[in-house]
Amino acid sequence: MPTGGFVFPEGFLIGASTSAHQIEGNNVNSDWWAFEHRPGSPVREPSGDAVDGYHRWRQDLDLLRDLGFTAYRFSVEWARIEPQPGHVSRAALEHYRRVIEGARERGIEPVVTLHHFTSPRWFTGFGGWAAPQATERFAAYAAAVAPILDGAVRYAATVNEPNMVALMHTLIRKGGADTDFARLEPDDDLSAGLIGAHHAAREVLRAACPDLRVGWTVANQVYQPEPGAEDACRAHAWPREDRFLEAARGDDWIGVQSYTRTRVAADGPLPVPEEADKTLTGWEYYPAALGQAVRHTAGVVGPDVPILVTENGIATDDDDRRIAYTGAALAGLADAMREGADVRAYLHWSALDNYEWGSYRPTFGLVAVDRTTFARTPKPSARWLGAIARDRRLPAGPGGEE
């Protein structure tokens, strides 16, 4: 590793992230599985076997260890743990306990998410996050999971990207084919239900696991006002992001998840310009988003809530482009940390090429997966980032700092 560059502090975690539905396969009791398979579903490609992560977790952990990563964020699947209301599967809990223990045995810090976009079918059937019993039911689920976290996990997230959960469920409830997702505002009852459930689960987990640090992760859109649109930008951002950041002010940490930016004019968000450099998802190529998202999050939650970067990455089939994007994003993160942002981890999205909510085409992974054989092949970007993880040093120059 060359001299110079930014040295991450002692104990800083560098790793990668996944989610249960996107890698495990055959999550048949979840609302997303039902959504994928309902007649007339807009989902182009169902998840199916995904990348068979439910059975191949040991191989995946071995890969992460051998690459040099020190942390792995993954989710436990509520629909497996509680397939029917009140029925907790001891077998499912033991499976996830083994994954947690397997990470620890390999020197990898497990960062566990309780809810990553998917819920049991029965929960959604009862009304989901807007239902009066949502808080009680999610808190009970957290209590069921607590024993496998206690003493083995330092960082747990209750809900992944609650702002996106609220928007997606609002779209399903009210949206039509012509709905502009960028201008959709989440239902207040959905947002309030998610915040209430998060706070309740946080207290359950704190009481059951004294050493556990509890937070949640927010999708950071890096809203940027056009000249004269500052007030409009703040008004647009609050129900879609800042409300959920404010709800984390009493948490033990907050997760930043950043990929690109959103420019906002006086009459609302602007589309990505046709001439802009774009990724496979159609998002603008904008690695500076990460540092800006960290600064914004720190400004909202305050200095007493540490930050974990729980997702950052790029959908591309050009791995050199992945290295360039990630290097520039890490350089922006380093600048934010020099300025005083209390950041404890960088977890890349994603560890594996996996199911991206309707399609396998957008490839975010550090590790390629053959869809037929499930063979895993680390990309050069995985070895590049793994070397940074081992040395805790971001090199100067191309692929690192400016």
TrEMBL record:
It comes from the Bacteria. It is an enzyme of class 3 (hydrolase). Coiled coil: none annotated. GO terms for molecular function: beta-glucosidase activity. Keywords: Glycosidase, Hydrolase. One of its GO terms (cellular component) is cytosol. The active site is at E311 (nucleophile). GO terms for biological process: carbohydrate catabolic process. InterPro entries: GH, Glyco_hydro_1, Glyco_hydro_1_AS. Gene3D superfamilies: Glycosidases. Its EC number is 3.2.1.21. Belongs to the glycosyl hydrolase 1 family. This is beta-glucosidase. It comes from Planobispora takensis.
